[in-house]
């Protein structure tokens, strides 16, 4: 049986309609596989976070993808799961449980984050670390420019600028 062009167009229309309906739910963190969770943003605009939980069988550690309370302001990454290319280019790990600014004290990490492959092509990861840097009182674009010019000086400035990056004071002797 041969399809007419009208039948083909109708079939194409209904296929597109079904696909749109299936995609309408968007990305929900709790439905993302744990190996894709870190660096994903739900369709509602909140970051997904890989968390640990005590397993029901044997009490071992299990991983879960959960919706965090962190709202993403960069609308271009809403409903987005980071690509493997960007994960590799930026030097991040999808198995990260929690994300902290501590990585920004590691020169190899900063070199990859500020590299053109990451900084210019991976807006989701850059947005995340932009906000982490801001929380430490640093402006990521200036930080990356400074790092390109003098990596050692940048590390010293960052580690001395933020209280959250400085080691906690030792408890007073009793």
Q: How is this fold's topology laid out?
A:
Layout: H1 5-23, H2 34-37, E1 40-41, E2 46-54, E3 61-71, E4 80-81, H3 84-90, H4 107-113, H5 116-119, H6 123-135, H7 140-149, H8 151-161
Antiparallel strand pairs: 1-4, 2-3
Helix pairs in contact: 7-8
InterPro entries: PAR1 (IPR009489)
Pfam families: PAR1
Keywords: Signal
In short:
This protein is of the alpha+beta class. The protein has helices spanning 5-23, 34-37, 84-90, 107-113, 116-119, 123-135, 140-149, 151-161; strands at 40-41, 46-54, 61-71, 80-81. The chain has one domain (29-161).
Which percent range fits the helix content? Answer: 40-55%
Structural class: alpha+beta
The general outline is globular
Number of domains: 1
Give a written overview of the molecule.
It is a single chain. With 174 residues, this protein is of the alpha+beta class. It has one domain (29-161). It is 43% helix and 14% strand. The strands form 2 sheets. The protein has a two-stranded antiparallel sheet. It has a two-stranded antiparallel ribbon with strand order 2-3. Helix 7 packs antiparallel against helix 8. The longest helix has 19 residues, at 5-23. The radius of gyration is 21 Å and the shape is globular.
């Amino acid at each position: 049986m041969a399809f007419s062009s009208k039948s083909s167009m109708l079939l194409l229309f209904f296929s597109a309609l079904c696909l749109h309906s299936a995609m309408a739910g968007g990305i929900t963190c709790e439905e993302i596989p744990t190996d894709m969770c870190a660096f994903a943003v739900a369709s509602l605009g909140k970051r997904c976070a890989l968390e640990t939980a005590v397993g029901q069988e044997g009490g071992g550690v299990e991983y879960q993808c959960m919706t965090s309370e962190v709202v993403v302001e960069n609308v271009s990454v809403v409903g987005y799961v980071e690509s493997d290319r960007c994960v590799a280019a930026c030097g991040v790990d999808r198995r990260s449980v929690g994300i902290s600014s501590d990585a920004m004290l590691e020169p190899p990490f900063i070199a990859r984050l500020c590299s053109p492959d990451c900084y210019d092509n991976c807006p989701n990861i850059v947005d995340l670390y932009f906000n982490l840097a801001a929380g430490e009182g640093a402006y990521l674009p200036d930080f990356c420019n400074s790092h390109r010019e003098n990596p050692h000086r940048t590390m010293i400035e960052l580690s001395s600028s933020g209280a959250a990056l400085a080691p906690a004071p030792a408890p007073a002797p009793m």
